[in-house]
Amino acid sequence: MIKVAFYDTKEYDKPSFERYGALFDMQFRFVESKLNEDTAALAEGCDAVCVFVNDDVNAAVIDKLYRYGVKLIALRSAGYNNVDIRAAFGKIHVVHVPAYSPYAVAEHAAALLLTSVRRIHKAYNRTREFNFSLNGLTGFDLHGKTAGVIGTGKIGRIFVDICRGFGMKVIAYDLYPSDNGIDYVPLETLFAESDVISLHCPLTDGTKHMIDDAAIGKMKKGVVIINTSRGALIDAEALLGGIKSRKVGAACLDVYEEEADIFFEDRSGHIMDDELLSRLISMPNVIVTSHQAFLTEDALNNIAETTVKNILSYYSNDGMCDNELCYRCGNIERCRNDRKQRCF
Ligand code: NAI
C-alpha cells in the first residue's frame, strides 16, 4: 500500500481523493496543517506528500522529507512556485497537475463578470430583506462591447468563446500569439479599446503588476477588470486608486497578491489586518472570491485522478514519472516536452 501525507486538507478535498485512492490501494493521511519545517515530521513513514499552493516546500523542508524517506512531492495544483524544484533535484521527484478544468476557471470569470455588470450581488442581498427597489441596480449590455483577453492559453481561449457567445467583440494580447482566429493586438491597444479586461496569463517577472497606474491610465473610463489568474498581476494599490478616481468601473478578483495567509480560511470574527484588501472589499463595485475559480466537482475529480496516477507512475516500470517537474536541464518547460525517462 502506498502511503501519502496530504497537507492543508479541506473538507472538499477528501471525497475525490478517498475514492481514487481506494481504487489503487493508496492510503491518504489527511493533515489540516500546511507543510513547513515544523510539520514535515507528520510525513514520517509516508512514501509521498501531496501539497497545495500555500504549502511552503523550501530546501529545508525537502531535506527533512528526504530524511524521512519521502520519494515524491505530488502537487495537486498546476502552479509550482511554492516548491524549490532545484533543491528537490536528485533527492525527491516532484509532480503536478498541469490542467484539471480550464472551463471551471473561465466560467468563474464569466460568472464574476455577469454578477458585476448586472449587480446580482446587490439584488440578492436586497430581495432577501424584501427590498424590491431597483434604484442603483442599472447595469449594461455585454452584447456589442469589447472584451480584452490577456493570455490565450487553455483558460483564456475558453473565456474568448464565452464572450463571443454574448455577442462581444474580442481582442487579445499574448506573448506568443498563435494562428487560432483570435484578433491579437498590442497591449496598449487592448488597454485603450476594451470595456472588459480579463487576465489569463501566468505570473512571471515580466507580468508582475502589469496592471499598474500607467496601465490603468491608458484604459477606458468605466472598464471592468477581472483577475482569476494570480494576484500579483495587479498592483492592488493602483487598482484601488483607479476605483476611487472612477476610472475603473468595477473589479472582479478571485486572486489577490497577499492572499497566502488570508484566502481559503474562515477569517470572520477576526480583525482584518490587510487594509488594502479591506478597502477593496468595501467598495460597492468590487467583488472578491477567495481563489475559488477552480472549485468545481469536475475539477476536483480531475485533480484527484491525475494526482493518484502521477503517484502510481513513480512505481511503474517504464522509467517515466508522469507530469514530473524536472530540473535536470534547468529548463522545466523544455524538459517536460523532451523527456523520455525520469528526471534522475
Ligand atoms: P496556459 O499556460 O494554458 O496559458 C497561459 C497563456 O499566457 C499562454 O498562451 C502564454 O503564451 C500566455 N502568456 C505567457 N506570458 C505572457 C505575457 N507576458 N503576456 C501575455 N500572455 C502571456 O495557462 P492556463 O491554464 O490558461 O492558466 C492561466 C492562469 O490561470 C495560470 O497561470 C494560473 O495563474 C491561473 N489559474 C487560476 C486558477 C484559479 O483557481 N483562480 C486555477 C488555475 C489556473
What can be said about this structure in brief?
The protein is an alpha/beta fold. Helix content is 33%, strand content 14%. The strands form 2 sheets. It has a 6-stranded parallel β-sheet, sandwiched between helices.
Describe this structure in words.
This protein has 344 residues and is an alpha/beta fold. It is 33% helix and 14% strand. The chain is built from twelve helices and eleven strands. The radius of gyration is 22 Å and the shape is globular. The structure holds 1,4-dihydronicotinamide adenine dinucleotide. 1,4-dihydronicotinamide adenine dinucleotide binds next to helix 4 and helix 6.
What layout of secondary structure does this protein have?
Layout: E1 2-6, H1 14-23, E2 26-30, E3 48-51, H2 59-67, E4 72-75, H3 85-88, E5 93-95, H4 102-117, H5 120-128, E6 146-150, H6 154-165, E7 169-173, H7 187-193, E8 196-199, H8 213-218, E9 223-227, H9 236-244, E10 248-253, H10 275-282, E11 286-288, H11 297-314, H12 332-338
Parallel strand pairs: 1-2, 1-3, 3-4, 4-5, 6-7, 6-8, 8-9, 9-10, 10-11
The structure holds 1,4-dihydronicotinamide adenine dinucleotide.
Helix fraction by DSSP (H/I, runs of at least 4): 25-40%
Task: Predict the CATH topology of the largest domain.
Answer: Rossmann fold
Ligands and ions found: 1,4-dihydronicotinamide adenine dinucleotide
CATH architecture heading of the largest domain: 3-Layer(aba) Sandwich
Q: Helix tally?
A: 12
**Mean pLDDT across all amino acids:** 94
Give the oligomer, counting copies of the same chain as homo and different chains as hetero. Answer: single chain
Structural class: alpha/beta
Major β-sheet annotation: 6 strands, parallel
Which stretches of 5+ consecutive residues score pLDDT under 50?
none
**How many E strands?**
11
Identify the CATH class of the largest domain.
Alpha Beta
The radius of gyration over CA amounts to 22 Å
Terminal CA distance = 24 Å
Overall number of domains: 2
Order of helices and strands: EHEEHEHEHHEHEHEHEHEHEHH
Strand content: 5-15%
The neighbouring-strand order within the major sheet is 7-6-8-9-10-11
